């Protein structure tokens, strides 16, 4: 069974989502199915079919969350140190073409959120950065083409 790396914050967020889906969404959907059933003929009951579809999606997500949480390997980023990029690192990059500065934290697949500055450990950028030191230049092949970045800083927070 393959372990799934994640930060403590990512683990807590997944646990919160699981609790929400099990304790709030599941009963709400069951109630919607019961209500729709009371309306009679199920073969032509759109509300019933929509509620059953919602139930299937919710139960699928619950199963996925339970699987990931059972295989979670929580990495305490606060205990990591050094100037080499690894899981949990917050990396400051400077685009060598535009001089634009971006800050990314390398996190697990389930907690990645590019808008919040968190990229997945399996993303092309993270894979190119892993094992590199601060001050190094890195070329990354992305869907938008090849990009060159300089690692301006590595920190663990």
TrEMBL record:
Record-level Gene Ontology MF annotations: DNA binding; RNA polymerase binding; translation elongation factor activity
Sequence ranges of Basic and acidic residues compositional bias: 14-23
Range of residues in the leader sequence: none
Gene Ontology terms describing biological process: DNA-templated transcription elongation; regulation of DNA-templated transcription elongation
Stretches assigned to the Transcription elongation factor GreA/GreB N-terminal domain: 4-74
Keyword Kinase carried by entry: no
Domain Transcription elongation factor GreA/GreB C-terminal: 82-154
Keyword set includes DNA-binding: yes
PROSITE patterns: GREAB_1 (PS00829)
Chain segments annotated as transmembrane: none
InterPro entries (alphabetical): GreA/GreB_C_sf, TF_GreA/GreB_CS, Tscrpt_elong_fac_GreA, Tscrpt_elong_fac_GreA/B, Tscrpt_elong_fac_GreA/B_C, Tscrpt_elong_fac_GreA/B_fam, Tscrpt_elong_fac_GreA/B_N, Tscrpt_elong_fac_GreA/B_N_sf
Residue ranges of the region described as Disordered: 1-23
Keywords attached to this entry: DNA-binding, Elongation factor, Protein biosynthesis, Transcription, Transcription regulation
Gene3D superfamilies according to UniProt: Transcription elongation factor, GreA/GreB, C-terminal domain, Transcription elongation factor, GreA/GreB, N-terminal domain
Domain of life assignment: Bacteria
Pfam families for the chain: GreA_GreB, GreA_GreB_N
Annotated function: Necessary for efficient RNA polymerase transcription elongation past template-encoded arresting sites. The arresting sites in DNA have the property of trapping a certain fraction of elongating RNA polymerases that pass through, resulting in locked ternary complexes. Cleavage of the nascent transcript by cleavage factors such as GreA or GreB allows the resumption of elongation from the new 3'terminus. GreA releases sequences of 2 to 3 nucleotides.
Family designation: Belongs to the GreA/GreB family.
Protein name: Transcription elongation factor GreA
Organism phylogeny: Bacteria, Pseudomonadati, Pseudomonadota, Alphaproteobacteria, Hyphomicrobiales
Gene name for this UniProt entry: greA
